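Archive record
______________

***
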Amino acid sequence: MKILVLNAGSSSHKSSLFDLDPAANDLTPPAPVWRGQLDWSHQAGQVELSAHTAGGASIEEVIKTDSKMEGLERLLKTLHQGPTQVIDALSAIDVVGHRVVHGGPDYSDSVAISETVKTTIRELIPLAPSHNPANLEGIEVLEQLLGDVPQLAAFDTAFHAGLPAAAATYPGPYAWWEKGIRRYGFHGISHRYGAQRAAQLLQRDLAELKLITCHLGNGCSLAAVAGGQSIDTTMGFTPLDGLMMGSRSGSVDPGILIHLMRSEGYSADQLDHLLNKESGLLGVSGVSNDLRAVVDAIATQNPRAQLALDLFIHRLRREIGGMLASLGGLDALVFTAGIGENSPLVWEKASAAFQFLGLRLDPAKLERSPEDRDIAAADSAVRVLVIHTQEEWAIAQDCVALCQAQSG
């Protein structure tokens, strides 16, 4: 089964083609046969296209266009033409899966895309203005390019749809809940995959495990996972809540915002930009939203960079403690995503606060690896796993299940 997965963002489109045997039930995610990307961020009026295959063929080019349709059309051509050809024609694609950031309260699982689903995605644009418009555009463009090929929406909010009411409700007026103002949570595809993969690595039944999954990248969130279900998470009504992130503030005292509005005349749009684009690691360090650059700056005795790292770790430890309280115990702490997969410094500093649980790392394992692995010491009472998130493969698996259900 040939499955195309598209992650359409505001300034980039990432795509993969998987060729899966629906009956194989592989525990280890296979590499896609083709990967492609469009990057619109560097210069107005053009897009950078890159594609490569599992066999090592690749292509890179710059296309003079502002059209998302034209960009995606050119990207998909690399699937069946030129050095990165892996299929004879686009008609060979059996199903398309899309990552969609916000699905609201109505979707607790991935779903086949219909006009109703598209309407819901459109209505939720105010809650994810940087993501849902691009997700919807990707869906509609591929409908035009591929015709009646089945398409599926995998929602980042879906894994958290079953949060207990006490975890999902904000302590404002009850009318907020009635208006849909509640904690939705995000990064759900990654948290779900991380929990499932943790159970495989531990050779345990997921239904028996208490896990904290730490998705740490430019966007950061935690999930408390009990019995395979998300019971608490740090992101909330929007992806701005919770942990300190690359350029997002995470949770701040709402009184600060009222103060800025009253004393400095900030508008809603200015606050939005301040909290989403000028805060977090970037805002505190003044260096970068990339933790690697912040760490490099610390080596030059940059005090703001040191504060940014210290604050990032402090907020991470505090939120892990909150997830621990929601779980009432812990079998494994899971690190994933760009920082989570690649920063031994973060593994060590975050874990150090939980030695009272009997959690201990193995010093010999504190280095990056392409493999998923347990970095805890043999006698640690809590396992610590580093897992490379496989969101695209998780979406592809949902596509297989959709096609099997539709075929009876």
